[in-house]
Amino acid sequence: MADEEDKSGAGVGKLKGSKQTKRAPRYFDDSSDVTSKDKHENEKPSEGKSEDKKKKSGKKRTSAPDGDHADTKRGKESWDSDEEKDPFPGEAPVKEETLARYTRGEGNKVKMRAKTAGPKLERKTMEKKFHLAAKQAARAELLLGEDHGYLEASDDEDTSQLSQTDIADAVDISAAQKHFDLKLDKFGPYRMNYTRNGRFLVIGGRRGHVAALDWMSKKLLCEINVMEGVHDVKWLHMETMFAVAQQRWTYIYDHQGVELHCLKKFNDVLKMEFLPYHFLLATASSTGFLQYLDVSLGKELVAINVKQGCLNVMTQNPQTAVVYLGHANGTVTLWSPNVKEPLAKLLSHVTAVRSIAIDKTGTYMATSGQDRYMKVFDIRAMKPLQVYRMSAGAGQLAFSQTGLVAAALGNVVEVYKDCCSNVAEKPYLTHRLRNNISGLQFCPYEDVLGVGHRDGFTSLLIPGAGEANFDAFENNPYQTKKQRRDYEVKMLLEKIQPEMIGLEPGGVGQVSQLTAQEVEKREQEAVQKKFEPARKKKGRSKSLKTVQRTKGVEEEWRRMKVRQKMREEEEKRKKQQKDQKKKEKWGSALDRFQRKDN
Fold first, then answer.
1. Cα(231)–Cα(267) distance, rounded to whole angstroms?
2. Closest C-alpha among 154, 156, 179 to residue 166
3. Secondary structure class of 86 (helix, strand, coil)
4. Is the pLDDT at 506 greater than 60, yes or no?
5. Predicted confidence band at 60 (pLDDT cuts at 50, 70, 90)?
6. What is the rounded average pLDDT of the residues 414-436?
7. Dihedral through CA 210, CA 215, CA 219, CA 223, nearest 10?
8. 581 φ, ψ (degrees, to nearest 5)
9. Environment class of residue 597 by beta-carbon count within 10 Å: exposed (0-12), middle (13-18) or buried (19+)?
10. For residue 91, which of 34, 52, 98, 372 sits 20 to 30 Å off, Cα-Cα?
11. Which of 340, 350, 344 is nearest to 372 (CA)?
């Protein structure tokens, strides 16, 4: 009987405190759990294998546990699968409006001529990655906790009647300090420019005063007087260099006020624009020339004679890097450094154009003329969307990151909200200064509008003007010195060539599907002119004779191309031989480090 009892109670007696166990199992005790699992695996290996297969397949056990194993870790195994089902299975849905902001356009529908399925599969995989990236970016919007707010007035109030003093009293101390006034009445009127991250400011007076400062901490970087007139100032790719269009030539200074370069080819410049992704400084002069300077190489890229007289109205499209010029005959022309002629022309006003502004998406363009009209155009269709009659001609226009439009009407600044897609019946905010306005720009990532005038510079608070969330990998207002150096190297490595500038914004990411033969054929058609043989008398202009003469000219053109190619190859071979002889005679500069054999 004792033997039978020992056999029957072998599996239970050891777990319940028999002499073979050192201590009784307790709650949250791993040792008892491990020993029980080992015994079950030793006694029933087939059942253990089946359970492992069930775990790998993702299926849960439905049988109830023994009473001895009830005191395991909480949440270690779930026995009731019906009660713990996810009420919201799958991924969280994404709104179509949110997804549309991050999509990269339609997929590539060009038919591939590949004989194997490899390239097609690669393209399909890339399309899936693009779609997944857009979906993840749309889901990540939940992490952007900041949101830009606007002024909201009651029924009997109007936001345009609020003064800067009222706004500064209502906001916190840090925001109120961003409203200030620099009184510089001896060297005005002033032009100004913010850096791309909105941290630094440079101002230039018409009578030679130039100053660069960290406008948030009010720390002065440099202050000089160039002793001649200043027409425009512009930051370059970093806050360590800025360009000044002076009375005669264009100069480049560092953040300490030291002169770095004197660009004598860029004379009589009135307006400047810097293209950050191409490292190009575009200038418009009073002589009617549009010039491009490659800042990374220090060379003039191209000089284009616009043939429209003095160029004093200029801006750029931040999406396509195309330069927009306004002229006295009311037209707006679009320019690229690759073409000597304008890419497009647009008749915006019947009188001279006074100012042009383009939003950050490159969709809307606002123009003002001497006819006291401000027009908003859709750049994609080149058609006007809204027309506003102003009390005076707007001498300066500026777009904010959120779509607000600021217009300078003499000594009055008017800010309009939602004036592109809808009709704005009244201004969002207004502010009156003592003198006429000469410069206007919204500060990036801040609710601030910078205004340059005859008495100096004024910083205005415009709630809802700046983007609330910034991308630290693109523009970081709080970057350190090391981050700035790394960012500068990254920008140089990712520099876009000037040949990529065009009206199509997606041209940089596209891949040409033309074969080498098609490209060569297009080049021949572009270079080769169609030969039309002269008509001769006495039967020498028959169809056969004409075809023979045409083919003879084409064959001669081909021979000339072959001779030119052979000549280039011969020159290349001679140069290589010359370099080889020179190397054998003099050796290399690294030969001094070679090991000398005794």
1. 11
2. 179
3. coil
4. yes
5. very low
6. 92
7. 0
8. -65, -40
9. exposed
10. 52
11. 350
270 closest CA partner among 284, 287, 249, 251: 284
Of the CA atoms within 13 Å of residue 143, those in its CB half-sphere come to 7
| Contact (CB, 8 A) for 368 and 374 | yes
Number of other residues whose CB lies within 10 A of the CB of residue 462? 26
For tokens 């002269």, the residue is: 534
Q: Which of 53-57, 182-186, 543-547, 591-595 is least confident?
A: 53-57
Q: How far apart are CA 569 and CA 275, in angstroms?
A: 38
What pTM did the predictor assign? 0.69
Average pLDDT, the chain: 82
Question: Over the stretch 97-118, which tens digit does the pLDDT of each residue have?
Answer: 888 878 877 766 666 666 677 7
pLDDT for residue 300? 94
Closest C-alpha among 228, 239, 241, 302 to residue 266: 302
Kindly state the tokens that stand for 165: 């003093």
Task: Say if CB 243 and CB 193 are below 8 A apart.
Answer: no
Of 504 and 315, which is predicted with more confidence? 315
∠ CA 414-418-421 to the nearest 5 degrees?
130
Structure-block tokens of residue 96: 């179509």
Residue 412: Cβ-neighbour burial (10 angstroms; 0-12, 13-18, 19+): middle
In this prediction, residue 374 carries a pLDDT of 95
Cβ pair 450, 440 in contact under 8 A: yes
Please answer whether residues 239 and 233 qualify as being in contact, where contact means their C-beta atoms are separated by less than 8 angstroms.
no
